[in-house]
Design goal:
Distance between the termini: 58 Å
Largest sheet: 3 strands, mixed
Oligomer: single chain
Shape: globular
Radius of gyration: 21 Å
Helix content: 40-55%
Order of helices and strands: HHHHHHEEHHHEEHHE
Strand content: 5-15%
Low-confidence stretches: 11-19
């Protein structure tokens, strides 16, 4: 009897260890690749729904891993949702579009606001310009959120609008280079500089989330650091955000 029990125990351990281990970064990348190609994504969606919070937090530990995974997830499900029902993006429905819990991950139903402001921006209030952090948050958010906000995420997240940065597919191993590339590319396209007045006419994201950038002084430094302006501009002016819906706006990242 002891022999049978020992064999059964060893067999159980073998079967558990033999189960395929989920690479969540790869899963998020494959989801976004299929969305881009208009392919069926039910397998990827099912895996995300049925995984456990414990397994997800065990495999996605560093801020780099969390950002690559959640940026891919956010961008993929924005595209999926808007393709399924474009009417959600009308002026009167847009706020609800981001607040509605629609993305099922590890048994939790998340909204796009949950992903962006709760996880990617580490529980920051959406309407505080990046200066006020929410205190009483659910346990799943505390376990999943990044420790430190990386301001470059604002130039990687695509909310489905014409003024949004293009969608790219992110990899945690070269995330720093990828975010730098997307930041520089987007800001170059979106910024005009008047040499006489030393004024940069640039994206309103710098104003909406100014605390993430180190204030408006930080935003001016960023424009100079990334070569968008030749010097630190004296003044910033912000362009109107074009909320016209635009899907399938992708950008290929170079090899790093």
């Amino acid at each position: 009897m002891k022999t049978i029990l020992s064999v059964s125990l060893l067999l159980s351990i073998f079967l558990i260890n033999a189960q395929p281990k989920t690479d969540y970064i790869e899963l998020s990348q494959n989801l976004l690749k299929k969305v881009k190609k208009n392919q069926d994504v039910q397998d990827e969606v099912k895996k995300l729904e049925t995984t456990t919070l414990e397994d997800l937090t065990e495999k996605i530990k560093t801020d780099q891993q969390k950002l690559a995974f959640w940026i891919n997830i956010y961008n993929a499900f924005i595209q999926i949702s808007l393709k399924e029902n474009p009417e959600q993006y009308s002026d009167e429905n847009r706020d609800d579009f981001f607040k509605t819990e629609r993305v099922n991950i590890a048994g939790e139903k998340l909204s796009f606001d949950d992903i962006e402001h709760g996880i990617i921006r580490s529980s920051m209030s959406k309407i505080s310009m990046g200066y006020v952090k929410k205190i009483f948050r659910p346990e799943w958010e505390k376990k999943l959120r990044v420790e430190n906000i990386d301001w470059r995420i604002h130039f990687a997240l695509n909310c489905g609008a014409k003024s949004c940065p293009p969608v790219a597919i992110y990899n945690d191993e070269v995330l720093d280079q990828q975010l730098d590339f997307m930041t520089k590319s987007y800001l170059k396209e979106q910024t005009d500089y008047n040499e006489e007045t030393k004024t940069a006419h640039t994206v309103v994201l710098f104003s909406w989330f100014r605390g993430d950038f180190g204030g408006l002084d930080g935003a001016r430094e960023i424009l100079k650091e990334y070569g968008i302006t030749p010097v630190v501009p004296d003044d910033l002016e912000f362009k109107d955000y074009d909320w016209t819906m635009l899907i399938d706006n992708y950008r290929e990242l170079p090899e790093f």
